[in-house]
Design brief:
Length: 440
């Protein structure tokens, strides 16, 4: 059975194309920075938004028209697998990602849930034998069910901690079976609503214990995947323990976990934390913690996680600048944790959305590489910090001075000369490079 009868394989046709079912900038075979675009960008499809989301929001019921929704239960889960691999093949993506409950319905018991999961995992494994699309990462949903009302690994209830651990144990086994390159931990309810009834130290200690158990079990079963933590500052809790990359990094260092984890950074989560996307990428990069990316964007007029498909070329350029500087994403990728708008309810809209996102990051890749090749931003930064290349500056950097020597130097200063940061010039230059990408 086919589910996307109105769509054939999506191909690269170039900027002049008017075909809505074609890439205008993403050419998977084009070489940039020594790799093909497909190898560098490592695009992934988010199973939850693409195959299971129905358009429900806090103010309205479902709107999505999906040809597989005529089924229910396990039949629906199986139909989604069929539709998913048809979608992957026609879009030409190398990766996909999922939570356990995205692919298989929960049963009345954990044992029944695992049986459902085994059935669908076997089906996915069969499809993967003849598909180029591999598993970028998997995870488990330890946040939606009412049992996680007070959290999972940070829950006040030890039974819930045990249940969450059992689900992650199964998730690690599934990841190994399907050859996942990464495993993601997103603590959807690992936080608190109020400190008035919260033992923060116990919750954080338990979270640390939980992660150590996961590391130990992955070693036990020889699951060689990169572990990733995905920060998010709020929603649904008042405060998440994985608020942003810096907070997560401090947690990992404090609990002796930094050697086992990197970060899966989402653009929309960055802005909810009051940061830019590139800020989170930069912090992770300079600390050797950049693992993978959830590619989306938020709406600056809305204060929640809207998970829009990325179309902001300025943002994709600055993101790819950090990723190229990182030497790529290694085992990570660009997973479209993005959903079509509630009004874009036809099956074909799933293709239009992914094409837009893939083209946007292709532009970002090419422009960012040219900025790096021409040392545009490096040049501005080197000039701005040139005082640390000689004299007292290099003494500071090399640790050859102290407060007494610095005081002696400062007392001899008659004036301090500053230089412009040239922010407007820098932004104008980036605009020039972006516009050139469309002129070529």
């Amino acid at each position: 059975m086919t589910y996307f009868n109105n769509v054939t394989s999506i191909k690269y046709e170039g900027q002049a194309s008017t075909n809505p079912f074609a890439f205008k900038f993403y050419n998977p075979e084009e070489v940039v920075a020594g790799k093909t675009m497909e190898e560098y960008l490592r695009f992934g499809v988010a199973y939850w938004h693409t195959m299971t989301a129905n358009g429900t929001d806090p103010f309205g019921s479902s709107t999505m028209v999906r040809p597989w929704d005529k089924f229910s239960g396990m039949d629906l889960a199986k139909a989604r697998v069929e539709a998913a691999f048809e979608f992957f093949e026609k879009l030409g993506v190398p990766y996909f990602c999922f939570h356990d409950v995205d692919i298989a319905p929960e049963g009345s018991t954990l044992r029944e849930s695992n049986q459902n999961l085994d059935t669908i995992v076997d089906m996915i494994k069969d499809y993967m034998k003849n598909s180029k699309t591999k598993l970028l990462w998997n995870t488990v949903n330890n946040f939606s069910h009412p049992r996680f009302v007070h959290g999972a690994a940070s829950s006040n209830n030890a039974d819930v901690f045990a249940y969450a651990a059992a689900k992650v144990k199964k998730g690690l086994e599934v990841g190994k079976e399907l050859g996942a390159e990464n495993y993601v931990f997103w603590g959807g309810r690992e936080g608190y609503e109020t400190l008035l009834n919260t033992d923060m130290k116990l919750e954080l200690d338990n979270l640390g214990r939980f992660f150590h158990m996961a590391v130990d079990y992955a070693k036990e079963i020889d699951f060689d995947a990169q572990f990733l933590i995905e920060p998010k500052p709020k929603e649904p809790t008042t405060h998440q323990y994985d608020f942003d990359v810096a907070t997560g990094h401090a947690f990992l260092l404090n609990y002796g976990l930094a050697d086992y984890f990197k970060f899966n950074i989402e653009a929309n989560h960055a802005t909810l934390a009051g940061h830019t996307f590139e800020h989170e990428l930069r912090y992770a990069r300079i600390n050797g913690m950049l693992g993978s990316v959830d590619a989306n964007q938020g709406d600056p007029l809305l204060g929640w996680d809207t998970d829009e498909f990325p179309t902001d070329l300025y943002s994709t350029t600055l993101a790819m600048y950090e990723i190229i500087k990182n030497g790529g994403l290694g085992r990570g990728g660009l997973n479209f944790d993005s959903k079509v708008r509630r009004g874009s309810f036809e099956p074909e809209d799933l293709f239009h959305a992914h094409i837009a996102g893939m083209d946007s990051f292709a532009v970002g890749l090419k422009v960012a590489q040219k900025l790096i090749d021409d040392k545009v931003l490096d040049g501005f930064a080197e000039e701005r910090y040139s005082s640390y290349k000689e004299g007292i500056g290099i003494d500071i950097v090399e640790g050859k001075t102290d407060f007494r020597k610095l005081e002696e130097y400062a007392l001899g200063l008659t004036e301090i000369k500053q230089q412009s940061g040239r922010l407007e010039q820098i932004k104008a230059t980036i605009n020039q490079y972006l516009l050139r990408a469309f002129a070529e």
